[in-house]
Amino acid sequence: MPTETDPMLAQLAQLQSLPTPFEGLFDGRERLFWLYLLGSALIALVLMLAAGNWPSRARIRAYWLSRDARLDALYFLVAWGLRTALIIPLVLSVQTVAVWVLHALNATFEPPFLAWAYRDIVLAYTLALFLLSDFTRYWLHRLMHRSRWLWPFHRVHHAAKVLTPLLVYRIHPLESLLFALRHAAVAGAVTGVFIFLFGARLDLFTIFGENLFIVALFAFTANLRHSHVRLSYGRWLEHILVSPAQHQIHHDRRHLNTNFGSCLALWDWMFGTLKLPLETQGAPDYGIGPRGTRYSSVSALLLEPFRDLGRLIRRS
After folding, report:
1. What domain of life (predicted)?
2. Greatest distance between any 2 Cα atoms in the chain
């Protein structure tokens, strides 16, 4: 029989089920997954020991307590709240896009239902989703730099002069929305095409809940990209894979229009935007110069792009 405490218990259960900003520590699809952090930390430690560059306590404090590091930590919490409350409800679901694509194909063609082995279908689906997702990330990232209307929003990410792993979350909500819509469109389109070709026999090869290829090529060194630990893969391999050193070049204000790749450097190589570590000289100059001083608070990170956009519209 229901009691007066039942509604309260139901509300408590609902609150306990709400996501928290720190669930990424236990989610293999997130950059802050504890195993990725540990792997990056061990690699960084080995590199520093090999170079005889053991960091002092003063250097550690200067790095982790820098203005950019503190701002990244605060913005991480604010951005999580905005993403949960505003962005996720606005994004099309992968399932919705897949259904649209499947209906369009069925209305135009006869489904072939190809008789591939299940393992081959899963491998092809995993690889196709990885390649198309990485390819579209390259072009959207490049557009964020090249478009005068989008660059003010992406500049939020590049304003930091100190690179920490949390910098990956210093993304303006508008940019987060664009990348989320890109993911829904790509994953939905690939899923719809594969269901049309093979029927509903789809699954992904995953590790820790993430695409096999992303984890294998990207995850364990991903957090070193936004760090001051220089790790290069060598000239030959860096024409194919994005190394931490390559992405650090991308944050050097002298080379902002290079190295747009996410996992694969292949797209930069193919489309003329590749900059290898061996082709650069001197210490990196992170940030965007004097203009970066405008981005010194969470409110500035959120509002300055709209002010810049207003100035652009007035000039136009």
Report:
1. Bacteria
2. 75
Residue 228's contacts (CB-CB under 8 Å, 6 or more residues apart) are: 63, 162, 163, 248
Backbone φ and ψ for 211, nearest 5 degrees, come out as -50, 130
Handedness of CA 226, 281, 147, 151 (dihedral sign): positive
Is the CA virtual torsion 176, 182, 185, 191 positive or negative?
Answer: negative
In order of 8, 30, 107, the CA distances from 112 in angstroms are 53, 36, 13
Position 6 scores a pLDDT of 53
* Structural domain containing residue 161: 69-204
* Coil/strand/helix, residue 286: strand
Q: Is residue 303 part of a domain?
A: no
Residue 63 within any structural domain of the chain: no
Please report the pLDDT score of residue 208 as a whole number. 85
pTM of the predicted model as reported, rounded to 2 decimal places: 0.90
Last residue of a domain, one of 155, 173, 204: 204
Structural domains counted in the chain: 2
Burial grade of 216 (CB within 10 A; 0-12, 13-18, 19 or more): middle
d(CA 31, CA 222): 7
Residue 276: the pLDDT is 96
Q: How far is CA 289 from CA 110, 256, 286, in A?
A: 57, 12, 8
| Closest-CA residue to 243 (of 47, 61, 63, 52) | 47
Same domain, 41 and 154: no
